[in-house]
């Protein structure tokens, strides 16, 4: 049996469904959440209501679930839990459970936007110009390296929380004074893309890349998108992901301005738009199950059709508590 545990499943029903479909009768897909009203729980074979991920003793609860249910691999769908999984990788391995996550240092780099910017810059990848220090930003403005408007966002943050556009120094000061730990980024006036990337857990090689042009966004997630291909961007993504040492599934934000691609943020988990990739044949659950079984995946980068559209819409889950 090859059992899988999906942590903090929330509303990500499509991902739970995909894992169940690919696993079939070879095992069970378990899910957890801190709320019994998380709809994705009820698409799993079985589920567990657990404390919040920041509660004392949370890790022990998850380790116990893994041990008692012979869980072969575990993954999380929310940012706050990823560092916990990566940092405690050895504890999971000791009970026979493989965390599907990059290493702790790589995960932490993803969650520090300035640190990620420096990594990309120092390794020769085009990226979004970023400033931690206002004086450095003002010097860049004075020399014409950057102009208003700019984006102001938390150095460590997710779901597009506290991200604002500043069109003047007065607006910039207002936003910088409102919150601590903010980052100033140049405004990228172009097309935004997302990439769902799988790096083999065993070989460390990028084996799958799916690129989508983002048509409509909501709260940091893609609502509408269309599949596209570009060999130059495939190469850029593969080189960056392998250079950084990522493992498993990652989600990358990319901008195209004046015909040039700029790598932006990396999320070391399933992105909200992954169902688009899955519908186009990018079978990350299968790649994960292969790795759990000790099989190295062969690279099949760009193995999907272009011009396939994704359009999200609301569904309803009904639960009878009687």
UniProtKB/TrEMBL annotation:
Pfam families: ATPgrasp_Ter, PylC-like_N
Keywords associated with the record: ATP-binding, Ligase, Nucleotide-binding
Region forming the signal peptide: none
Domain of life: Bacteria
GO molecular function: ATP binding; ligase activity; metal ion binding
InterPro entries: ATP-dep_AA_Ligase, ATP-grasp, ATP_grasp_subdomain_1, PylC_N
Residue span, ATP-grasp domain: 117-293
Species, as recorded: Trichococcus patagoniensis
Name the UniProt record assigns to this protein: Carbamoyl-phosphate synthase large subunit
NCBIfam families in alphabetical order: PRK12767.1-5 (NF009406)
């Amino acid at each position: 049996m090859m059992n899988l545990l999906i942590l903090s499943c929330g509303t990500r029903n499509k991902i739970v469904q995909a894992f169940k479909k690919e696993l079939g009768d070879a095992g069970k897909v378990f899910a957890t959440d801190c709320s019994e009203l998380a709809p994705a729980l009820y698409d799993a074979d079985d589920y567990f209501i657990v404390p919040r991920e920041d509660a004392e003793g949370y890790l022990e609860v998850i380790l116990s679930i893994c041990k008692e249910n012979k869980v072969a691999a575990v993954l999380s769908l929310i940012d706050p839990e990823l560092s916990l999984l990566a940092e405690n990788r050895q504890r999971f391995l000791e009970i026979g459970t493989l965390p599907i996550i990059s290493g702790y240092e790589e995960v932490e780099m993803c969650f520090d936007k300035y640190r990620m910017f420096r990594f990309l810059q120092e390794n020769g990848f085009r990226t979004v110009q970023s400033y931690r220090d206002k004086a450095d930003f003002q010097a860049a403005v004075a020399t014409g390296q950057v102009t208003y408007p700019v984006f102001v966002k938390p150095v460590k943050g997710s779901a597009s929380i506290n991200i604002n556009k500043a069109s003047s120094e007065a607006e910039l000061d207002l936003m910088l004074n409102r919150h601590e730990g903010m980052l100033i980024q140049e405004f990228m006036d172009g097309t935004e893309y997302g990439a769902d990337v799988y790096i083999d857990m065993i070989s460390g090689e990028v084996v799958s890349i799916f690129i989508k042009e983002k048509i409509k966004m909501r709260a940091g997630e893609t609502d509408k998108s269309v599949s596209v291909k570009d060999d130059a961007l495939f190469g850029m993504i593969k080189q960056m992901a392998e250079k950084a040492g990522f493992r498993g599934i990652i989600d990358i934000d990319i901008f195209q301005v004046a015909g040039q691609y700029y790598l932006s943020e990396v999320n070391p988990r399933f992105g909200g738009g992954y169902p688009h990739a899955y519908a186009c044949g990018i079978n990350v659950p299968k790649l994960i199950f292969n790795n759990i079984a000790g099989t190295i995946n062969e690279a099949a980068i760009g193995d999907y059709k272009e011009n396939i559209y994704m359009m999200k819409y609301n569904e309803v889950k009904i639960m009878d508590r009687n």
